[in-house]
Amino acid sequence: MIRFEGVERFYGDFQALAGVSFEIGKGEFVAVMGPSGCGKSTLLNIVGLLDRPTAGRYFVDGADASHLTDAKRTLLRRAKIGFVFQAFNLLPRLSALENVCLPMSYAGVAAHERRERAETLLARVGLKSKTRRTPLELSGGERQRVGIARALANEPGVILADEPTGNLDSRSSAEILDFFKELHAEGRTVILVTHDAGIGSMAGRTLRMKDGRLQQNP
Ligand SMILES: Nc1ncnc2c1ncn2[C@@H]1O[C@H](COP(=O)(O)OP(=O)(O)OP(=O)(O)O)[C@@H](O)[C@H]1O
Ligand SMILES: [Mg+2]
Questions:
Q1: Fewest CB within a 10 Å sphere: which of 7, 42, 49, 89?
Q2: What is the DSSP code (8-state) at residue 177?
Q3: What ranges do the domains of the chain cover?
Q4: Whose CA is nearest to atom 17 of ligand 1?
């Protein structure tokens, strides 16, 4: 479902990814771990079609995504991938409901359906009574729950999260992790970047990185 073949990513002269190859099957729960600066976010951004390799190839569902135009990559991302960020990345002027609606409006979902789906998703993450609040009126854990609802808006098969509990206390972290477990149990592919070995141990498999390389090729 996701395959990297010798992926490299340079930032100017600096090589952030060096010949990274792996495959992740549908429905796997994979943790990506390694020291700060080793290339975890760089790797996840390529998996999430937010960035492209400098060299090498990347496949999603058998289709080569490495040479797509930006517009086509965006379409593919919208159809297949939900992204959850460490810093939440919600739009501050929009309500929780509007933040969750946004990816659906880009995908052309009709207004009434957007609203209905967003309300269902926010209820699912326990925010039924707070859909009108803006991010500043929510706690960190609640903001991340909005982030998860937004990631699910277009019903992606793949959920990616870059240190989704990095800004949360242990109780909120545990709640957020339960949602990822649930999404995995529903059959979605979940790929999670984390520094936390406890979180890593929840995953079915761990990709360990060091200096832009995978330490053990699975
Ligand atoms: N836009 C950029 N321009 C130049 N260098 C970058 C850029 N983004 C990342 N890097 C460099 O690439 C390397 C890998 O960065 P990356 O963000 O992938 O690390 P990471 O493993 O996610 O680290 P952390 O655990 O601290 O989030 C780092 O040395 C970083 O400084
Ligand atoms: Mg990072």
A1: 89
A2: H
A3: 2-214
A4: 41
Residues with CB under 6 A from ligand 1: 11, 14, 16, 36-42
Residue to probe by mutation, ligand 1, list 8, 11, 52, 208, most atoms within 8 Å of CB: 11
Q: Is 214 exposed, middle or buried (0-12, 13-18, 19+ CB in 10 A)?
A: buried
Kindly state the tokens that stand for 27.
């429905």
Q: Which atom of ligand 1 is nearest to the CA of 195?
A: 25
Question: Mean pLDDT in runs of 10 for the chain (218 residues)?
Answer: 96 97 97 96 96 95 89 92 95 97 94 97 97 97 96 96 93 93 96 90 94 81
Which superfamily is assigned to 2-214 in CATH?
Answer: P-loop containing nucleotide triphosphate hydrolases (3.40.50.300)
pLDDT for 155-191, tens place per residue?
999 999 999 999 999 999 999 999 999 999 999 999 9
Amino acid letter, 118? A
